[in-house]
Every structure is written in C-alpha cells, then in structure tokens.
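Need the bound structure for iron/sulfur cluster, inputs here:
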Amino acid sequence: MIEEKFDAIVVGAGMAGNAAALTLAEGGMKVLQLERGEYSGSKNVQGAILYADMLEKLVPNFREDAPLERHLVEQRFWMMDDRSHTGLHYRSEDFNEDRPNRYTIIRAQFDKWFSQKVREAGATVLCETTVTDLAQDSHGKVIGVRTDRRDGEIHADIVVLAEGVNGMLGTRAGLRERPKAEKVALAVKEMHFLPREIIEARFNLKSDEGVVIEAVGTISRGMTGMGFIYANKECISLGIGCLVADFQRTGETPYGLLDRFKRHPSVAPLIEGSEVKEYSAHLIPEGGFKAIPQLYGDGWVVIGDAAQLNNTIHREGSNLAMTSGRIAAEAILQIKSRNQPMIPQYLALYKKMLDDSFVIKDLRKYKDMPALMHTRSQNFFLTYPQLVSKAMQNFLRVDGTPKIEKEKLTLRSFTSARSRRGLFGDAFRLVRAWR
Amino acid sequence: MSIELAMRVEDKLFNNRYLVDTGRPHIKVRPHAKPSPQLLSMLKACPARCYELNEQGQVEATVDGCIECGTCRVVCEESGDIEWSYPRGGYGVLFKFG
Ligand SMILES: Cc1cc2nc3c(=O)[nH]c(=O)nc-3n(C[C@H](O)[C@H](O)[C@H](O)COP(=O)(O)OP(=O)(O)OC[C@H]3O[C@@H](n4cnc5c(N)ncnc54)[C@H](O)[C@@H]3O)c2cc1C
Ligand code: SF4
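Answer from helper R.:
Posting the output first, comments after.
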C-alpha cells in the first residue's frame, strides 16, 4: 500500500495522461500516474498521425529521439465504390521541411517513449495497475483512487481522469455517461509488414516521406465510417471504423468489413505479399461538441477521449488529448500556486482555458456534423460515392456519345437517385454544419 | 481465396500477444433463457468473435482473445446483459504496435 499522499494522480498513460503527468511533474508537483497495461502504449490503438505542434509544446526537442515513422508529404482522399475510387491527392514539397508538421507513428512505441519523458520529469509511473474505483469522501469529493494492486486507497488533492474513450471510473462514479452506441465508432486495424523499398515504391516515396490515404464509400456498406491506410517505415497501418450503432443495425462484422477493404482492387496491390503481425480494435468518440461531458468537479478533471475531445471530421484526437492534458495541468498548477483547493470554483479555470483553445473552438465549429452524417449515412457513404464513380467513368470513357448527352446522363443519375430536393437539402445541410 | 477463409478471426488473433488471467474472465454474461437483441448483436459486432451461441441458444462469451475494445460494454452493460470490467493490471492483450 502506498501510504504517502500525492499532489495529483493521473489515471491512464495514453496521449492525454502523459501530457498531463509530464506538465504537472515539470511544474514541481508530486505526481502518481497509473496505467493498466504492461507499459504505456500496450493497450492503445491509433492510425496514426502525430501532430507535431501539440507535442512540441510539451517536448520541444522531440524530433531528436521520439520514435517517428515518416513525415507526411502527401494526403489522399478516396471516394470508393466496389470497383473504383475517385481520389483527391495533395502532395507538396513544402512538407519536406526541417520541422515537419505531421508524422506517422506506431502508438505502442511512441507511448513508451512519451512515458519515459514523464518518468524523467519526476513522476512516479506505476504500470500493470488497473484503477477500479474513485475514492470519494462523504460529500462526494474525489480524494483518490482504489486499484487492483492491494487493498487500500491512494490519496491525492486532484485526480486527473485520462482513461480514454471507454473510461470506467468516471461512469461508475456517475460523473459522466457511459458512451452510447450512436456516439462511438469501432475501428479495427491490422499492421502489414513489407520491406521498406517496396513501401516506398508502391506509395511513391523517397527516404522518410510518408503518405496517408483516407477512404469513404461503399467500403462501409452504407454505415457512417471511414477506411484508412498509413505508410510507416516498414509497415502499413490499415483499418476501417464505423459507428457501433450501425454495426448493430446492419449485422455487418468488423473483420468482414476490414477484409473487404483489403481486397478492394485499389487497396490490394498496396499490401500484396505483406505479413500481418497484429490485429487490434478500439473505439473512437464520435459525438463531438454536443457529447462533451462536465469537465471538472470536486477533486477531479477529465481530459482526452474520456471527455470526448475528438474531432472526427479531421481525424484528430491525440492532439486534442495532449492539449487538453497540458491545459488541465497548467490550470491545476496555477490553482496550486495560489494555494487554493481543488474545488469546482477554481477548477473552472481548466474549462475556461480549454474554451479559449483550438480544442473547443474546432469542436464547436462542427457541432452539427455528427448528427448529419449519422442520420444520412446512406446518402453520404453509399449513394454519393457510387454516383461520383459513375460520373467519372462516364466522363472518361470515349465512346462517341456527345459530351452534352453525357452531362445530362450524369445529372439524371444524380437526380433520380436522390431527387433534386434531396440533393440540395443534403448540400445545404452539409454547408451549414461545416460552417 | 474464399471469403470465409479470409475472414477467420482466430487466425488474426493468433498474431497478438496475450497474458490470459486464467479462471478470471473480465467479462461475464448474465445467465439467461433467451438472449436479448443486444446480446445477439454481439455475435457479429465483437471484433474478436468472443460471443457465440451455445446449443441451448444462449449467448456465451469466451474472452481469452478479447482485444478490449469496449464495444460489448457500450452495447450490453446498460441492459444488465453483461458485467464488464478491464482485466487485472498487466493481463489481457498486449499490443506491440497498437
Ligand atoms: C483506429 C484509430 C485511429 C486513430 N487515428 C488518429 C490519428 O491519426 N491522429 C490522431 O490524432 N488521433 C487518432 N485517433 C484518436 C486517438 O487515438 C485518441 O484520441 C487518443 O489516443 C486519446 O488519448 P487518451 O490519452 O485520451 O486515451 P488513450 O490513448 O486511449 O489512453 C487511455 C489510457 O488509459 C489507460 N486506462 C484506461 N482505464 C484505466 C484504468 N481503469 N486504470 C489504469 N489505466 C487505465 C489505458 O490503458 C490507456 O493507456 C485514432 C484512434 C483510433 C482508434
Ligand atoms: S471488449 Fe471488444 S473484443 Fe472484447 S469481448 Fe467485448 S466486443 Fe469483443
């Protein structure tokens, strides 16, 4: 039993927890971080893109020793039907800069490195420890945690909940709701290993350049979802995710979806001959701004995915996690420096600071997107990709049909599938939600 | 390549590393005569195919291959169909890449 009392306990050693523990320890606090995995990262799954700017604010010289895979020079967006894809590529030499903006990473390896930084900053990191409950006093104030290690409680002035999307503690203690099937996506993912040269040749890369492909369309079978392919140094991360409620509704299997994605004629050549070394799955918060729970209370704050801080429109999560972790820690340090207690009145500072950051500003911008995508998933993820593909093929095939006829045909295929009103309605709603 | 062959989840899980907490499953299905729609949906939605029907038509969970995604918790915990928690610290799936 750990007798001593800590200034802060951080539950979880993912992106959010590591950012918070690092900032708190660097600020001179006595920090205990608890992680259920064998090491930080052993339970974590991500695509994964690392956003440099948000990490730089925590570890300014991270490029020196962080396990980075490739810096991104190209982004592809594919709209797929069963036999084709219509793509948008953006590639720029500007991304071959001294301090690249985005990298691919392998989460288990990255988190291990991040955790080492937390230890070096002086925090006590205890892995292989599942926190089972929050300890509360008779007034409901959170005063520490209970773990499965040995009986007894560990106390602290503040508990930082960084337990990820599926967080049990916050929900068990009634601080927030359990994630709902309509508000979380289930992603499945595989790691495909290939020699470096082959990856570089297939993706048109030199040295450490990287590419990301994001794909929507018939691959998700009309469900709200997205496929992704990330080029790492010697492997390719490949996966697909859809809303849990959609899986329930359709009876599609996650692995069936993944396998169909892998066998798509646009995808199969990229991974041909690869060796699969891992199969993983994870939830992603999809509720956006409207799903953000109460962020602080008596003796606690919540950060990262546990607080639903995830921007699914831009596929950003770990940067919001890192930023919310850092901001929560900075707020806590300010409160502590003024010798104020960790009560809601003062912890409100965390929310205020977060509201002023890109985290909440971005999420607020897209507050209507999740609902739109989810209620119209058939249109956005099945009908439109098929129509676009048909239009492209019609446009490219040279078969003696006058061009004016072709245009009419394309327009007719759109209006007959979705009616003029439907099309305008979708476009209007999309623009409004995007603004 | 047949579709069935490509979709064998057991083969996929075979690549993963696990430390199984023998005799202490972290997910328990509540005994039932007839499975609820939620439980039934897990036969397909679980990415590790941990849920299966037994001969009596009840849903059973074998969680040795569980990848701890939490999907069954989201679907079945509220209705009381399952008791869900994380494995004890250090046990369960151990991602090398994640
Ligand atoms: C397939 C996929 C692709 C993604 N791609 C991207 C991407 O490209 N870019 C991006 O920025 N984001 C991406 N995300 C989102 C990103 O992974 C998350 O937003 C981010 O990991 C959230 O960090 P977190 O620290 O809040 O949670 P997590 O990283 O999930 O960490 C939570 C930690 O808490 C631990 N824990 C939980 N409960 C307990 C407990 N009771 N006791 C002890 N420890 C506990 C867990 O083991 C874990 O280590 C992706 C997510 C998925 C699933
Ligand atoms: S947590 Fe995920 S992998 Fe484990 S049994 Fe539940 S649905 Fe299956």
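Comments: Chain B has a mean pLDDT of 92. The longest helix of chain B spans residues 37-45.
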